[in-house]
């Protein structure tokens, strides 16, 4: 049986999820792709850390060694931050590899560059995992809504913020205590600034913007407000009125310009995002024919995010002529 | 520009929706298909009824006239009931046409026959519109979850029943009065038996069963119970306990057999279907990697259902060699 050689950049939670999912779903991948998928290399940062990686896999800190693997066809990128993620993805595409990324910060800024380069090289870039974890929002928009005009997207794109808001309301906790519980559950980073200040949701909204509207608004003009300004009293007052604060990323076209915001919004029970609780994410898509649909599910996590990457790969993969000469 | 000739079988709510959507989304279809879509014929039942159909379109009660259209490539079937829907679809496929159907009763029983015949003839059968109206559940399962093992599907598949349950709880109405409001809103048929007795949801569940598990359970062994047995007192008692009755279609594999049921289920607030209200439908899909995702949206209606048919068509269409000789 043919072997598809893949490399994994980063071996954090998501990287490990992909590594394990490829092993546990070997048969399903075979059935779909008529090929074995082999993780041939894992790029890591700290060579001294103990990892559960098969001895047949090249484990290296040197990206050049990864790219030098003969017949490498796919790169799964699960690194955090713009660099070196962007450079690695670009080099992989240049070399003729498909790229599947979970890196929202990088993709919000450089997605267009990667997509254009991929088109030029005849490979594909999968970025389902950048936005809303396991929820297949990217491919729902790009594949299931090709005729509908999408007019607006409203979404809860950060599970940490949503968890904190739920915990504040349900357990009557002030912000800091609710955040501490999120930390204890592993739902918040040691430094949760990107999550609770709205930057994480902002990146995902910009990725959706490019997909839906073909462009992004001026980043400086997008109103971004986190949940830190909400007091327990605010949330309890809303609750008594039957309302809830949700941290909503919103984008729509207003005349010739895109209006985008990421901020706490007070919503009534009939709002599609009112009932989205805990670490879930949800995306409401408004289309010209379909009306309004909402996708809800895990916005992060080892296997949901790995699911997005593996499904992206399985749906988009096709053998490509290797362009080794280019690198 | 190339023209794709299509025929429309049935000109009820859904048929009219498709007819209008093809006109209002002409540009989007052109962009996607690089072709004009022309509704060349509409098959009707009552020739005396006044209809808003362009005079250039063949309007006929004779299906043979439809099939005889030179170069016909696509048939949109929006008739109710097993026959003549099934025979027409089968003949269209035999002739080498793609078929897009919204006919759940027919497709629950004969879907396999049509899919196999279509494979043999090199055409495709789109059936997104048979299940959950505008919600792209069929293609989410078939295209976005190709690696995940789907373990279970739980769904609200009948908007009428869901509306009635919501109205009973919110407005403290007995079943018959809530149903009357559904009728006034156009959410219930004059004879709503198929909806409130669970048969409609059953058909959709059987369609999902074939898609997810490759087979259907013995129809006779599926527990099907409508919402008619629920009293206002039942619903109010549940409400006081913070619970809600939802009419849930459920299917999962239990060892070697499929367990399926369609019945009212008492669910707590943390259940994914608890907050689905009014005429909405929702489907929760449990996958081996993704965990649990829920799709919520309009389960019926002119344009949502037309959306499902048109999107199916746009995504699946490819020019086929006409096999006129076969008919």
Automatic annotation (TrEMBL), chains A, B:
Catalytic activity: L-homoserine + NADP(+) = L-aspartate 4-semialdehyde + NADPH + H(+)
Active site residues of this protein: 204 (proton donor)
Presence of the UniProt keyword RNA-binding in the record: no
Positions with a binding annotation for NADP(+): 10-15
Segments forming domain Homoserine dehydrogenase catalytic: 136-312
SUPFAM superfamilies: Glyceraldehyde-3-phosphate dehydrogenase-like, C-terminal domain (SSF55347), NAD(P)-binding Rossmann-fold domains (SSF51735)
Record: residues binding NADPH: 104
Keyword Amino-acid biosynthesis: yes
Residues where L-homoserine binds: 189
Domain Aspartate/homoserine dehydrogenase NAD-binding: 10-125
Pathway where this protein functions: Amino-acid biosynthesis; L-threonine biosynthesis; L-threonine from L-aspartate: step 3/5; Amino-acid biosynthesis; L-methionine biosynthesis via de novo pathway; L-homoserine from L-aspartate: step 3/3
UniProt keywords, alphabetically: Amino-acid biosynthesis, Methionine biosynthesis, NADP, Oxidoreductase, Sodium, Threonine biosynthesis
Enzyme Commission (EC) number: 1.1.1.3
InterPro entries attached to this UniProt entry: Asp/hSer_DH_NAD-bd (IPR005106), HDH_cat (IPR001342), HDH_CS (IPR019811), HDH_short (IPR022697), NAD(P)-bd_dom_sf (IPR036291)
Swiss-Prot/TrEMBL GO biological process terms: methionine biosynthetic process; threonine biosynthetic process
GO molecular function, one term: homoserine dehydrogenase activity
Pfam families: Homoserine_dh (PF00742), NAD_binding_3 (PF03447)
Family note: Belongs to the homoserine dehydrogenase family.
Protein's UniProt name: Homoserine dehydrogenase
Species annotation: Heyndrickxia coagulans
